[in-house]
Amino acid sequence: MLLLSSTALTLLVAAASISLVGATIDPLSWDEAYTKAEIIVSKMTVEQKVSITTGVGWQNGLCVGNTYPTTNPDFPALCLQDAPLGIRLANNVTSGVAGINAAASFDKKAIRARANYMGKEFRGKGAHVQLGPAMNFMRSPLSGRGWESGGEDPYLIGVLASETIKGIQEQGVIATAKHFLLNEQEMNRHLSSSDVDARTLHEIYLWPFARSVEAGVGSIMCSYNLANGTYACENDYLLNTVLKGELGFKGFIHSDWGATYSTAESANGGLDMTMPGDITMGSGGSFFGKNLTDAVKANQVSEDRTTDMAMRIVATWFKMKQDEGFPEVSLNSFDLENSPYVNVQEDHNILAREIASASNVLLKNVKNTLPIDPTKTKKISIIGSDAAVDPSTLNCRNHACTGGTLAQGWGSGTAYFSYLIDPLTGLTEAFGDNVQVQTSLNDWDLKEAAETAKDSDYAFVFSNSNSGEEADVAGNMGDRNNISLWHNGDNLIKAVADANKNTIVVIHSVGPVLMPWIDHPNIKAVLWPGLPGQESGYSLADIVTGKVNPSGRLPYTIAKKVEDYGAGASISKDLVIPYQEKLLVGYKWFDHAKIEPLFPFGYGLSYTKFNYSQLKVKVNASYGDNKKVVNDATVEASLSIRNGGPVEGAEIVQAYLSFPSSAGSPPKQLRGFEKILLQKGEKGVVEFKFGKTELSIYDAETESWVIPSGQFKLHIGASSRDIRKVAKFTL
Ligand code: NOJ
């Protein structure tokens, strides 16, 4: 067995104590920000108020989205820029892990640190608004943009949202929570209506946005689709009643690019800013601008409404202290070659590498095949086109192409790679000069693959599966056509496994794939780095050689066959999409239907072992008549975790709750997780606190959140299907 060297140990500890980058700002409270905004907005004419709500039109400015400035009173043009994983359409930026990987780390600190360096980079380029985080759901594993967000569980996406927003805004950059709401597929995204009942809406799809508002998010992007028959960006119920009413959102709502379809309906429906400004992208004119001013004059929209719109925008700007010396815009999104040289990367590669390894999920590891000691290795083979960068596809426009190693999906959620360390480079460097590395990068030449694999100590075989936004890549129009590996992956893996008894499979994928080869006796290990970004190869090598002990967990269920996903088994082509599965999204469906997944939600192995013991639960609640809880009950739980294995490592302890049967809730739902780093033999305590948010269900009749009375069950485990301790409590 390989023991970690002392340098290796230092690196691993560093990974677990990821810290925030550089100076951070402390955003103003909304009250303070509104007081300041009032001074400016009270001096604005209707035209001025309207102009700051209106984008200048597609490709008419330096950023992906730009607003008009005002003078006397002065308010600057705002720059809104993609993407959730880094700065899009710019050079000299860090292009790190995708949102789905941030979620797979199940590591709040790492998520915050990632957001922090991203915020710093956006600020460095003068972008006022980062168009992220994305928080749509992997309602189906096929959904094209699922990888931009955090998977299939609202609690996990909620944590991703909250930590990301705080991290970005600590750098004085406005975060955008998107896409609001029910925009779970690419197919017919401008045309289809996602129809959902009020309980599902609140408990699943709204959840991450509620956490975003609590985190102080500055802006929210409404989506292209209709929700229950009305366009999201003019949906009075969603924007006014729910977002600004129930959730008390004080920032501004702007449209997705071309998701405004009207003037008065949108303004009255709650939209505060139209993006990129023109009626349809590139067409000129605007639903806002002069049309909105005219609508005010015609009494179709009140002047108060335009005041509210302007107040929301100006207050958000003050909240992030952008009035205190915010850098000039140095982007030139549509003329990259003529953009000024501003390098914002600093040493963010270190964090990008740590987060990439922290999000790598070890799916299979027969007889501790991993980690590998390079000093005891003579020859390795590296097989598959996914192992190496293909310079011709590395930075194709919006990454909407395929070829070479996969490190992010395609579409507006991408950022160009200043460089991409591919697995071939990462592994070759890590194994060093004394280990012979032979390669076969052609996925279709199975004979060559087998020959190459045959007599090496370990054969690493790589494959991938990609998806993205809108554009057609290899016949996939954003959403995936299927969940099989691309580029002959299954045959390649089988050919290599037939030839080498120490085969290690590495998959770069946007989401679940089928694994018909999983039980092949020669496949000794399977690693799932997902979408690791620019530090792909280094972060992989850190895991392979044991410098970092894997602790990533699956943020989605990997099924044995696609039909097992139920409602998610296909992408609907219909223009009305009823979310009939209701609350049973992801693992909740698998639990309910008693379907055995191939790898469950929350799953991931480690090089060490953890023992769970001494689960204790304490209930703080008082009861009125009918034994109903009358305060905001809190339930506290604690347990001991011991690292009983051979090396230091971090465990992701997951807490799932079953609600009283009268609640009609899914069998169990994630309501907490903690990452704990323990030395070999060390014992630590993990604590959870469940409050009103975690203990309630949404009661559609009374339109309120209520804690159901009866017996709850707390399941503590290492995955949704590896429950180690259970305790009951009654409320
Ligand atoms: C459309 C995408 O849906 C959105 O996520 C993105 O921010 C805008 N385009 C701007 O590129």
How would you portray this structure in words?
Residues 651-720 form the Fibronectin type III-like domain. This protein is α/β, with parallel strands linked by helices and 731 residues long. Helix content is 25%, strand content 20%. The protein has a six-stranded mixed beta sheet with strand order 1-2-3-4-6-9. The protein is globular. Mean pLDDT is 96; it is low at 1-17.
Would you spell out the secondary-structure blueprint of this structure?
Elements: H1 6-16, H2 30-41, H3 46-51, E1 65-66, E2 79-81, H4 99-104, H5 108-124, E3 129-130, H6 154-169, E4 174-180, E5 193-195, H7 198-205, H8 207-214, E6 219-222, E7 226-227, E8 230-231, H9 236-246, E9 252-255, H10 264-269, H11 289-297, H12 303-319, H13 348-358, E10 361-365, E11 379-383, H14 423-431, E12 436-440, H15 446-454, E13 458-465, E14 472-473, E15 476-477, H16 489-499, E16 503-509, E17 523-528, H17 536-544, E18 576-578, H18 587-592, E19 610-620, E20 634-643, E21 649-658, E22 669-678, E23 683-690, H19 692-695, E24 697-699, E25 704-706, E26 711-719, E27 722-730
Parallel strand pairs: 2-3, 3-4, 4-6, 5-7, 5-18, 6-9, 11-12, 11-13, 13-16, 16-17
Antiparallel strand pairs: 1-2, 7-8, 10-17, 14-15, 19-20, 20-23, 21-22, 21-26, 24-25, 26-27
Helix pairs in contact: 2-12, 5-6, 5-13, 6-8, 13-17, 14-17, 15-16
Bound molecules: 1-deoxynojirimycin.
